[in-house]
Amino acid sequence: MPLDAPSLIAELLRDHAESTAQGFLTDAIARVGRVAMVSSFGADSAVLLHMVAQIDRDLPVLFIDTLALFPETVAYQKDLAAHLGLSNVQTITPDRTALFERDPEGLLYQSDTESCCQLRKAEPLERALQGYDAWITGRKRHQAATRADLDRVEMEPGTGRIRLNPLADWTAAQIGAYLDAHDLPRHPLVARGYPSIGCQPCTSRVLSGEDPRAGRWRGTEKTECGIHFIGGVPQRARKADAA
Ligand code: SF4
Known about the structure:
The protein has a 6-stranded mixed beta sheet with strand order 3-2-1-4-6-5. The protein is α/β, with parallel strands linked by helices. Helix content is about 35%, strand content about 10%. The protein has helices at about 5-15, 20-30, 45-55, 70-85, 95-100, 110, 115-130, 170-180; strands at about 35-40, 60-65, 90, 135, 155, 160-165, 230, 235. Iron/sulfur cluster binds near residues 68, 109, 117, 120 and 225.
């Protein structure tokens, strides 16, 4: 029987109004059907990856390697997956032909970050998510004004898929406490001044007192990489909206 996504979303919101993130995630994975987690293996990622590993180590974890990541992220992905015993991490990369045609020199980010994120993140992820009913994200309300109303579970506009956001209401302090409580390995760049980590060309160090995401696409209005779709089109946000 096809998944009745709107009904299931309503049930999950009703049944888990007071649940912990772990309780919500455990039940949601059991009820949703074909589900994958999408992880950047960034600064906060170990929290949700640890929860998933406790529930089902074989759950598909999709890691988007844009081929422009810090080498530290690629190494951390391997180390953390091994540490947690995750057995089904799938590395997703941009289409080689599309890269050759649209970014042959690897410098598209200098002139058009939207097109670059579309080519290196949004399109590969959309291909990878075909066949899934739902995906798990690590998005949190406190990260940006564009995420302020984020629910734990929502319909992905335009695709019919469900998005599970177990950490939607978590604060930065809760993330830090969970990492400490479970003695989880940190991304090595966090200690070097990168509290939010994306592609190497588009991520800079953050100074004391700055917003943690200030180092992402610094000097531009861009705040989101565009992997969250509206009607099949990547969602955009202006940096001013996220202040
Ligand atoms: Fe390209 Fe920068 Fe987007 Fe990475 S973050 S895909 S390098 S524009």
